[in-house]
Fold Patatin.
Amino acid sequence: MASNLLVGSSFDVDKLTFEIFSILENKFLFGETKLSKLSPQNSRIRILSIDGGGATNGILAAKSLAHLESSLRRKSGNPNAYISDYFDIVAGSGAGGLLAALLFTRGKDGLPLFTADSALRFVNDHQKKLSSSRSVLRRFSRRGKHLEKLLRSTFGESTLRDTVKSVLIPCYDLSSRAPFVFSRADAVEADGFDFKISDVCLATCAVHGAVEMRSVDRKTNILGVDGGIAMNNPTAAAITHVLNNKQEFPLCNGVEDLLVLSLGGGESDFRIQNLHSSPSRFVRIAGEGASDTVDQAVSMAFGQCRTSNYVRIQANGIIAKKQGRVMEKQIKSQKKGEIVAAIEEMLEQKNVESVLFKGKRIVESTNLEKIESFGGELMKEEERRKTSILPTVVLKQASPSPRTSSATTLSTSSSY
């Protein structure tokens, strides 16, 4: 493919037009290029969406991704494949935002900082720092300071520009009283939208209190709290971002051009008689209800292609019982190894689907079977792109110039 193309006011070239012109020129001169190769037929943008913590504080999603990564390595024959190799964009809220950052932030060697398996160990090892009361008015506690130290040591000085693919991570901004979405696409355009990854994770997790943060140029101030308040299930935001971002996803025209994996956080076992629960529990009920509503709406939007193009993994807390205790209580009390084993049982359950105006239903496929099947779809898409002449994704890259400049480059690769 052509090398990077500088985008600026003095050098504004439409790369796709140039590619098409080159193909037509070869066709006219040599008669060798087939016009059917002008667009990658049936190519789909691959979206990964991860809910807020839910009943499992991100461990369910992390375990699902560990299974998926293992499946992709087996199917591709590449033992060093990463989750980020097979997705074009990731959206994560709360604990899901932290997972997105772990899996898609570039390390010093140019590779993602974490594999799915090492990300699973990370969230499992640091559950106490990641779990706390959902009160957003509480002062920044000692546990919150421990979490801040952990994230700073994990991500260092990395910012949104240092992610390997497009990233969306929401929080709720108390200063503007509106949702705020941290976006890599915005970060590469202007320093005022570029934030340290550690701050982004603190803001979207924000279970210890509001996090005051500034962009790298110190001009944008955010007072961020839990991303689950803004959007516990960011799937719709990710889809909207892709469909309206023609610069990075020029060939995507509708949901039939998408391949979406949405990971839930596990449902809590809220009983109808539990009407006098604490406010924090009702906040979680609201978050889970919002996630189900997004799932229903997205599923309806996909219509006839929802079984192949949209997959939702969500374990039912009411079903997931062991020795008379619900999964949520197990996770709070069990040791690390036992927690992962309990999550494994949740994945072996039959998948739970939300049906618009009809509640939930249990389908025949288990969560693990759906993950395995989705891995096959990802591999098919990867093979399609190897024969495509035009890039499916034109990923904006940060300019090597100082961060005071907002100039960007466009990078294309046949692997996209």
The mean pLDDT is 79.
